[in-house]
Write a structure and sequence with these properties.
Elements (H helix, E strand, L loop, with lengths): L12 H5 L63 E5 L21 E5 L2 H7 L6 E5 L15 H9 L4 E6 L4 H10 L3 E4 L5 H41 L11 E7 L10 E7 L5 E8 L4 H19 L4 H15 L7 E8 L5 E7 L5 E4 L2 E5 L20 E4 L4 E6 L16 H14 L4 H16 L7 E8 L4
Parallel strand pairs: 1-2, 1-3, 3-4, 4-5
Antiparallel strand pairs: 6-15, 7-8, 8-9, 9-10, 10-13, 11-12, 11-14, 14-15
Helix pairs in contact: 5-6, 6-7
């Protein structure tokens, strides 16, 4: 982000509050709804009166209403404000009378040096006209001849900048454009029509460049999001397994960027299917990146043969070394399903217990009594592994707390695990399975909440269907 321009004192109303406020797109936005002071002539280049107060180009100090005393009540609105930085305020005027595209006067402020320019460079300035003959502060004669321009560009990265050169110095003007100026103008060829048009074009080019930059940044964010998505939501490794897999992920609050929820499923050479789902506290790219690291570490450790407490203890070490802050933690649920598919081991690290559904029996939560703390909370913590009987045919649903923390209508109450279990039972009775079950469940939770959920939602479903 650009560094905010420092202000040594408040600019009077006619100087600082009567022109359009700056937009965020690299050029101040136009706003013609307020009255603004017209500058009748540019014959008096003084910027300050003897008391040090800023003046407009009419040479009189503006009052707090934004009009000069002798023209009170006759102020004409303006759309553009120009900051002229010239080194010879007592010489011939550089800037003639200027009109914008609608025929309204362009307001002009004059600074004799970069110090005054910095003070007058408020957010309502649209364009800067810089005399390249102005000496750079603290530079000798052998210094970079464009040093003053580079200083202005650094001072005002969001503003359009025009430079003024002599007839025999157009080469330096072209170099100034290469460095970052919007255009260069020859002093001897300057007139109101040419300068007014150059100002308008410079402002629009700057806005166009800013829009293109934002578009490029948006594309980069989308690419980063896709990379994070591939890391958080991987393709399961279930080759050789009869289990069916389905998953659904929905960012909370319609965020374009995924949060810290993650999951994975792999089958090891002995035929065991390992599944996990986790949630890093917080939202945003840092949490998402940490979730990716934990998921990849889990897959690597699982394929290397670790399971249960040993695996979670190692993951906690990874989290402690990779997290940006000691307050960050992650909840995790891991399940390892035996090769015969009839039983599983369950480890919970501060995470909601999975839901098990079997034909002819109501869906229920797996035991939650013998669980451990979230990863990153307690050094040296342990995570017991519970043995769970699954049966011959079943569906096992792992989820993050975004699915159960949504509100239920106007009551203010949360859905909770009991509400989720009742919802899933009803949807199973309606014959929903696999992807359709997860999609319907997430959509119903959103509907009960009255809109987008605050937290991200990740749901993973494994089904074992008995074949004839």
């Amino acid at each position: 982000m650009p560094v905010p321009v420092p202000r040594q004192r408040a600019i009077p109303a006619a100087e600082g509050g009567q022109a359009p406020a700056a937009s965020l797109d690299g050029g101040p936005a136009q706003d013609s709804s307020e009255a603004r002071t017209a500058v009748p002539h540019a014959t008096d280049p003084h910027t300050t009166d003897p008391s040090g107060n800023a003046t407009d180009r009419s040479g009189t100090s503006p009052d707090r209403t934004g009009t000069t005393p002798e023209r009170a009540g006759t102020a004409t609105p303006t759309n553009l404000t120009l900051l002229l930085i010239e080194n010879d305020p007592g010489g011939s005027p550089i800037v003639p009378d200027l009109l914008d595209q609608s025929g309204k006067p362009i307001r002009v402020r004059t600074a004799r040096n970069l110090t005054e320019a910095e003070r007058l460079l408020t957010d309502d300035v649209h364009c800067i006209l810089l005399d390249l003959a102005l000496p750079a502060p603290g530079r000798d004669g052998d210094a970079d001849e464009l040093a003053v321009l580079k200083h202005v560009l650094e001072l005002a990265p969001r503003h359009a900048v025009l430079v003024l050169t002599g007839a025999d110095d157009t080469e330096r003007g072209a170099e100034a454009v290469r460095v970052g100026a919007q255009d260069y103008l020859v002093r001897d060829e300057l007139d109101g029509r040419l300068l007014g048009r150059a100002i308008r074009y410079a402002v629009e080019r700057k806005r166009s460049e800013s829009a293109e930059r934002r578009l490029a940044e948006g594309r980069l964010r989308a690419q980063e999001n896709r990379r994070l998505e591939r890391g958080l939501l991987p393709t399961p490794l279930l080759e050789g397994s009869s289990l069916r897999f389905a998953a659904r992920y929905r960012p909370g609050r319609s965020r374009a960027l995924l949060g810290g929820d993650f999951y994975d499923v792999v089958r090891t050479p002995d035929g065991t299917v390992h599944a996990m789902i986790g949630d890093v506290c917080g939202h945003g790219p840092d949490e998402a990146a940490l979730g990716v690291e934990l998921r990849i570490a889990w897959r690597a450790l699982t394929l290397a043969g670790l399971c249960g407490d040993q695996l979670l203890s190692t993951l906690q070490q990874v989290l402690e070394h990779e997290r940006a802050d000691d307050e960050i933690f992650a909840t995790l649920c891991t399940v390892d399903i035996a090769p015969d598919g009839r039983r599983a081991g369950l480890c919970l690290a501060g995470h909601p217990s999975p839901l098990l559904a079997r034909p002819g029996l109501p869906a229920r939560l797996l035991p939650y009594d013998n669980n451990g703390p979230a990863l990153g909370l307690l050094p040296g913590a342990r995570w017991p592994r519970m043995q769970v009987e699954l049966g011959a045919e079943w569906s096992l649903m792992l989820y993050t707390d975004g699915l159960i923390e949504g509100r239920v209508g106007d009551t203010g109450e949360r859905l909770g695990q009991d509400g989720m279990v009742g919802m899933i039972r009803r949807q199973l009775d309606e014959g929903l399975r696999g992807e359709e079950l997860l999609r319907t469940a997430v959509n119903e939770v959103r509907h009960l909440n009255g809109g987008e959920l605050t937290d991200d939602v990740a749901v993973l479903l494994l089904d074992r269907v008995r074949t004839a």
